[in-house]
Write a structure and sequence with these properties.
Blueprint (H helix, E strand, L loop, with lengths): L9 E6 L1 H18 L5 E7 L3 H10 L4 E9 L12 E4 L9 E9 L3 H12 L4 E9 L12 E5 L5 E2 L15 E4 L1 H4 L1
Parallel strand pairs: 2-3, 2-5, 5-6, 6-7
Antiparallel strand pairs: 1-9, 3-4, 8-9
Helix pairs in contact: 1-2
């Protein structure tokens, strides 16, 4: 899906494809520096983090493996409900591993706070959080996030993995969805 095909459904672009490519490379370099000589387990949060995790993992120079969790706190709405459902748990054992949670977006922080605590309780050697986007004005809980790609305003965004009712994920940018689409 290209931006031109949904231009009438978007109010503005917040992060361009060029900005994404550059920032992902910077984040990978920071991970490489911190975890030099170690292997990390990247834990992606489905489905939104797929694009970010794919690009980030390819940019890393250190050894890494991947696993996925699927959690839901949105349903078909546009605001986090705060009720977390596990739709898919990890396949891998994480005890003693250096885990990096790869998240698409931090809104309220409730889902991420729960996830970080859960993985720590499973005996990971370390748990860090790398989020592509963060909405500081939407935070309801304080979540220790190591790296953030971009801070954005508290608006409903789509693209680069983020969706509305499973649409718009493949946009190569991050854009604000026009409220007329979901109201």
């Amino acid at each position: 899906m290209n931006l031109e095909s949904v231009k009438n459904q978007i109010t503005k672009v917040l992060v361009t494809e060029e900005q994404i490519v550059g920032r992902v490379a910077e984040l990978a370099a920071e991970i490489d520096a911190k975890y030099a000589g170690k292997e990390v387990l990247l834990v992606g949060v489905l489905k939104g983090a797929v694009m970010f995790m794919a690009d980030l993992s390819r940019a890393l120079q250190i050894p890494s493996t991947m696993d996925w969790m699927a959690l839901s706190s949105y349903g078909s709405g546009t605001v986090s409900s705060g009720v977390i459902r596990i739709l898919k748990d990890l396949d891998a054992e994480i005890h003693g591993k250096h885990v990096i949670i790869v998240e698409d977006i931090i809104d309220s922080g409730l889902t991420l706070s729960w996830l970080a605590g859960t993985l720590e309780s499973r005996g990971a050697a370390s748990v860090d959080v790398v989020a592509f986007l963060r909405k500081p004005d939407a935070a309801k809980v304080d979540v220790p996030v190591w790296l953030v790609g971009f801070d954005i305003p508290n608006e409903f965004v789509v693209g680069y993995g983020l969706d509305y009712n499973e649409h718009y994920r493949t946009l190569n940018c991050v854009a604000v969805l026009d409220p007329k689409v979901y109201s």
